[in-house]
Automatic annotation (TrEMBL):
Homodimer. This is Phosphoserine aminotransferase. NCBIfam families: PRK05355.1, serC_1. Its main location: cytoplasm. It is found in: Cytoplasm. It comes from Fundicoccus culcitae. It comes from the Bacteria. Pyridoxal 5'-phosphate binds at residues 76-77, 101, 150, 170, 193, 234-235. The modification N6-(pyridoxal phosphate)lysine is found at residue 194. L-glutamate binds at residue 42. The gene is serC. InterPro entries: Aminotrans_V_dom, Aminotrans_V_PyrdxlP_BS, Pser_aminoTfrase, PyrdxlP-dep_Trfase, PyrdxlP-dep_Trfase_major, PyrdxlP-dep_Trfase_small. It catalyses: 4-(phosphooxy)-L-threonine + 2-oxoglutarate = (R)-3-hydroxy-2-oxo-4-phosphooxybutanoate + L-glutamate; O-phospho-L-serine + 2-oxoglutarate = 3-phosphooxypyruvate + L-glutamate. Binds 1 pyridoxal phosphate per subunit. One of its GO terms (molecular function) is O-phospho-L-serine:2-oxoglutarate aminotransferase activity.
Length: 361
């Protein structure tokens, strides 16, 4: 079993069973005598991996035929620019600013010539909540949200009803964490290294009627090219796609997204309950917008935070340090973190509190 519980925000812990399976078949994929990383992306064996991976994702998220699924590179960060380039018609887009990644998404859109209207923002309170948004979206090419704010620990549990205006969501840190009604969105994108596997792959789910708006773009930046070439216009990130396939099998084996969501809520509740009663640790987000994927917390004393982080490292709790913009600690508890891992973290927090003589019990 695992030696260490890894709370990294990404690249993040991967289901242990997936790592084992990848190891088992690494030297010879499907008894071919060749590794999955050695075979051509045009081979029938790999084309099957791609097709099966797409089929599994469609099945878990109930993605209809109105949508294309693309396996791209460049991370979620390249999507910050590709989306405005491809979806540009009028040249104006609405962004809801809920954190560091939203800021970056909006900045990139401006760099490629989009007029960005920030229609709601929670920057007045260090992004510790999801702001209310206006309801008239007419005149925009799309509305952009960051569905889960990885650094700040907030989540949209309801989405803007944008009617005919496409809703675009960066779901990098919460895709597959719970069931999702994809039909509410024009486009969903996610870097794979949080809930979908390893770095190097970005999944884009795009409504087919948005594919043709490109404005003479370089082919690598054109969604329609990637769609028509079935994500193999050039060499796709083959190993990352293969790992995504294994992760999707694992999610299905866990009982699918309903069960995954139930477990994710249990995990987050355990940690929030602990934080809410702790005399030493405080959560930075309160109320209904709390993320069940990324949970930042602080002691309020930088030196004590540092000491706690070191204590964690000595007790098999890795990568608990918070993002430098938020400080303190952050527990990223994606799908691959079992309840046992969260309980281990809470035990270490309790032991540290007791050690410092400030525990409540
Ligand atoms: C991690 C993350 C990104 C950046 O992803 P890259 O793949 O490194 O470009 C963007 N948005 C969100 C919400 C993230 O969590």
């Amino acid at each position: 079993m695992r030696e260490v519980w890894n709370f990294s925000a990404g690249p993040a812990q991967i289901p242990y069973e997936v790592l084992q399976k990848a190891q088992e078949e690494f030297l010879s994929y499907d008894n071919s005598g060749m590794s999955i990383v050695e075979i051509s992306h045009r081979s029938s064996a790999f084309i099957k991996v791609m097709e099966e991976t797409e089929r599994k994702l469609r099945s878990l998220l109930h993605i209809s035929d109105d949508y294309g699924v693309l396996f791209l590179q460049g991370g979620a960060s390249l999507q910050f620019a590709m989306i405005p380039m491809n979806l540009k018609k009028i040249g104006k887009a609405a962004y809801i600013n809920t954190g560091n990644w939203s800021v970056k998404a909006a900045e990139e859109a401006e760099r490629v010539g989009m007029q960005v209207d920030v229609i709601a923002s929670s920057d007045d309170k260090n992004f510790n909540y999801i702001p209310a948004w206006p309801t008239d979206f007419s005149g925009y090419d799309y509305v952009h949200i960051t569905s889960n704010n990885t650094l700040e620990g907030t989540t949209f549990y309801e989405f803007p009803q944008t009617g005919d205006v496409p809703l675009v969501a960066d779901m990098s840190s919460n895709i597959l964490s719970e069931p999702l009604d994809v039909s509410q969105f024009g486009l969903i994108y996610a870097g794979a290294q949080k809930n979908l596997g390893i770095a190097g792959l970005t999944v884009v789910i795009i409504k087919k009627d948005l594919l043709k708006h490109q404005n003479q773009l370089p082919k690598m930046l054109d969604f329609n090219q990637h769609y028509e070439k079935e994500s193999a216009y050039n060499t796709p990130p083959t190993f990352a796609i293969y790992i995504l396939g294994l992760v999707l099998d694992w999610v299905a084996e866990q009982g699918g997204l309903e069960r995954i969501a139930e477990r994710n809520r249990t995990k987050a509740q355990l940690l929030y309950d602990y934080l809410d009663q702790s005399e030493m640790f405080q959560p930075t987000v309160f109320g209904k917008d709390r993320s069940i994927m990324n949970i930042p917390f602080i002691t309020g004393d930088d030196a004590l935070d540092k000491e706690f982080i070191q204590y964690c490292e000595q007790h098999k709790i890795a990568t608990i340090k918070g993002h430098r913009l938020i400080g303190g600690m952050r527990a990223s508890i994606y799908n691959a973190m079992p309840i046992e891992g969260v309980q281990a973290l809470i035990d270490v927090m309790q032991a540290f509190e007791d050690l410092k003589g400030r525990g409540t019990n």
